[in-house]
């Protein structure tokens, strides 16, 4: 019988709907003491490490989760399940994915409906995550996200709908597996990637979204000594209005790394177009293209890279991996 460490962090999965229809945090997580659901099949070790809404999640708390999981490597734990609010679940999952070695399966899950709503999905997702963490097939696939019977990689999964229980999707690539009758079925392999065992999460990195008619004023606002990096959600395959270029050149001249992703929900950023502001031009300037990540995840990757002490070339290679 396997032993699974359950780390509750809060979120909708732990909240309740009040008479007035508002959803609020409980003093005590209703998912605590659910061991009887898997009695005789799985041994659960349960800890309420946080009890916060997911907009309250920080990089420092993500680092605390990472360190708790690394401690579990020495405690005869076979896998980890983390319950988490859905607003920032993909960011926590991705942070853990690029800072933890593949020692044991790590699975995140959450809910779109609070614990006492009709059709609540929290308990079902939680149990599905436990079965996934128990599966031998889950080993070596990095951090996984399990929601609504589907298994996704932390690298590419994202929240696509504000309220629908089928909100978590993997654009372009799709889920890598599914859950059925307490079993996992994997249909895809996972790309290997570099892991950085960092001990700090310092650095100011902002995300700026491009739009038609954009000039350099937003970039000028962050052209200061506090800025350690910038992520741009660019137009299309990876293009920007030409009016932004002088400001970007000034930032690059100060050795501030600039990472470019697409603002599109599908596809990857590429240097395809060779015109002023086009991707070919931007790449020649020294802007780093991050293939397949969205803006928030590219920000996390840049912060992890900065805290790992990489030089400029190693940082560029890490971000474009």
What features would you describe in this structure?
It comes from Enterococcus plantarum. The protein has 321 residues and is an alpha/beta fold. It folds into two domains: 185 residues, 3-Layer(aba) Sandwich (Rossmann fold); 117 residues, Rossmann fold. Helix content is 24%, strand content 21%. It has eight helices and 16 strands. It has an eight-stranded mixed β-sheet with strand order 4-1-5-6-7-8-11-12, sandwiched between helices. The protein has a four-stranded parallel β-sheet with strand order 13-14-15-16, with helices on both faces. A two-stranded antiparallel ribbon has the order 2-3. β9 and β10 form a beta hairpin. The longest helix is centred in the first third of the chain and has 14 residues. The chain is elongated, with a radius of gyration of 20 Å.
How does CATH name the architecture of the largest domain? 3-Layer(aba) Sandwich
Question: For the residues shown, what is the average pLDDT?
Answer: 95
Number of strands: 16
Radius of gyration: 20 Å
Q: According to CATH, what is the topology of the largest domain?
A: Rossmann fold
Low-confidence stretches: none
User: Quick one: CATH superfamily of the largest domain?
Assistant: L-asparaginase, N-terminal domain
**Helicity, in percent?**
10-25%
Number of helices: 8
Query: How are the strands of the largest sheet arranged?
Result: 4-1-5-6-7-8-11-12
Shape: elongated
Active site: 12, 12 (o-isoaspartyl threonine intermediate), 86
Domain L-asparaginase N-terminal: 4-187
EC number: 3.5.1.1
Catalytic activity: L-asparagine + H2O = L-aspartate + NH4(+)
């Amino acid at each position: 019988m396997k032993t699974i460490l359950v780390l509750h962090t809060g979120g909708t999965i732990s909240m309740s709907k009040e008479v007035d229809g508002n959803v609020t945090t409980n003093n005590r997580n209703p998912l605590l003491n659910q061991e009887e659901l898997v009695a005789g099949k799985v041994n659960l070790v349960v800890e309420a490490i946080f009890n916060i809404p997911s907009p309250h999640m920080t990089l420092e708390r993500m680092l605390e989760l990472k360190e708790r999981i690394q401690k579990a490597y020495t405690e005869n734990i076979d896998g980890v399940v983390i319950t988490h609010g859905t607003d920032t679940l993909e960011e926590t999952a991705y942070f853990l994915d690029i800072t933890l070695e593949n020692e044991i399966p790590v699975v995140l899950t959450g809910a779109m409906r609070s614990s006492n709503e009709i059709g609540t999905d929290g308990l079902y997702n939680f149990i599905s995550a436990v079965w996934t963490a128990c599966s031998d097939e889950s080993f070596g696939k990095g951090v996984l996200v399990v929601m609504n019977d589907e298994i996704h990689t932390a690298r590419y999964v994202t929240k696509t709908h504000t309220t629908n229980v089928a909100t978590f999707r993997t654009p372009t690539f799709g889920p890598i597996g599914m859950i059925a009758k307490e079993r996992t079925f994997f249909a895809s392999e996972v790309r290997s990637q570099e892991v950085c065992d960092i001990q700090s999460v310092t650095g100011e990195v902002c995300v700026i979204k491009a739009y038609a008619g954009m000039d350099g004023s937003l970039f000028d606002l962050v052209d200061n000594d506090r800025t350690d990096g910038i992520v741009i959600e660019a137009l299309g395959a990876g293009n920007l209005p030409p009016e932004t270029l002088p400001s970007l050149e000034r930032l690059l001249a100060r050795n501030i790394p600039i990472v470019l992703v697409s603002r599109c929900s599908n596809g990857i950023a590429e240097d395809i177009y060779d015109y002023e502001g086009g991707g070919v031009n931007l790449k020649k300037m020294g802007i780093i293209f991050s293939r397949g990540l969205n803006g928030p995840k590219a920000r996390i990757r840049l912060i992890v890279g900065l805290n790992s002490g990489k030089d400029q070339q190693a940082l560029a290679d890490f971000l474009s991996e």
